[in-house]
Amino acid sequence: MHNFEGKKVWVAGSRGMVGAALVQRLMQESARIVQDPPRQVLDLRRQADVEGWMESSRPDVVFVAAARVGGILDNANHPADFIADNLQIETNIITTAAKLGVSQLVFLGSSCIYPKHAPQPLKEEYLLTGPLEETNRAYAMAKLAGIELVNAYRKQHDCNFMSVLPCNLYGPGDTYDIQNSHVIPALMMRLKEAIESKSAEFKVWGTGKPRREFMHVNDCADAIIHAAKNIANELVNIGTGEDISIADLVAILTEIAGYKGQIVFDTSKPDGTPRKLLDISRLQASTWGPQISLKQGLELTWQAFSDQPSQRRRA
Ligand code: GDP
């Protein structure tokens, strides 16, 4: 069992949704959080800058939560940015961590890197057993390379590095952008507009049939810390074990928001992967379970979102 008490921990990407939640959770572990420089000061895509920063800050433990992330359309429209930025960020951090002898590293992947038609629920060993979903293939290839890098350093240099694969996340600190964000923040923004403009119709992308496993980011951070402390495996799925169709998600959100108009499915927009429910046996075997139900988490997130009328895309 690993312990973070008194350890110098660098959460790369601490301004992102998961990174911020990890910092909060690590503070409960009495970790010494290394101050994460903003993007303007440290560009994680530049190897020399990352090496210089890590040599001077000398973290004991590193969480690689920094990544270029976005929703289905952002991924489909900017594949070059998604593959290039993510390959650079992860390679720079992981190789430097190995060189400096960091005692533990946790790399964050995502459930969208599993093959599009893999059997459900998705077991860790199904990675690389079939073709990827087209809309996020560039991002997935970069994350798969990151996982291979982690495994290779474990094998060749006996590094204590591991990867975690979270399902679709939501919660405080999410990116709010109608076009580019993930489904929950995008729908919240459009629902608010529909209510304010008294719109009779509410448009949802795709058929409503795809299923997704949604997890509140605080539960995700808790599960990642739990896995890092207790699970020796090199790869661990992070999820709730339950999924829901987009149509049912919309029904919950419209009820929470009090929207009574008609739901229209815009099938000119992509559905993406039909389903990506994670098998969370490794997590459950170490006695972890989620604390925040989807309904409760969506209520909290809607409340926080509607209290901030001017919330827009973060830089
Ligand atoms: P994905 O899990 O990588 O597909 O990520 P997203 O969160 O972007 O999309 C999840 C599902 O929600 C997809 O099937 C989308 O077609 C659907 N969806 C419905 N409405 C929206 C929307 O307004 N924005 C986004 N991003 N997805 C939407």
Describe the fold and architecture:
- There is one protein chain.
- With 315 residues, the protein is an alpha/beta fold.
- It is built from ten helices and twelve strands.
- The chain has helices spanning 17-28, 47-57, 72-77, 79-100, 137-157, 183-196, 217-230, 246-257, 281-285, 294-306, and strands spanning 8-12, 32-33, 61-64, 104-108, 161-166, 168-170, 201-205, 211-212, 214-216, 235-238, 244-245, 262-266.
- Strands 2-1-3-4-5-10 form a six-stranded parallel β-sheet, with helices on both faces. It has a two-stranded parallel ribbon with strand order 6-9. A two-stranded parallel ribbon has the order 7-12.
- Helix 1 (17-28) links the parallel strand 1 (8-12) and strand 2.
- Helix 1 (17-28) crosses helix 7 (217-230), helix 4 (79-100) packs parallel to helix 5 (137-157) and helix 6 (183-196) packs across helix 8.
- The model is unreliable at 311-315 (pLDDT under 50).
- The chain binds guanosine-5'-diphosphate (GDP).
- Guanosine-5'-diphosphate is lined by residues 71-72, 112, 136, 168, 182-183, 186-187, 204-206, 210, 212, 246, 269-272.
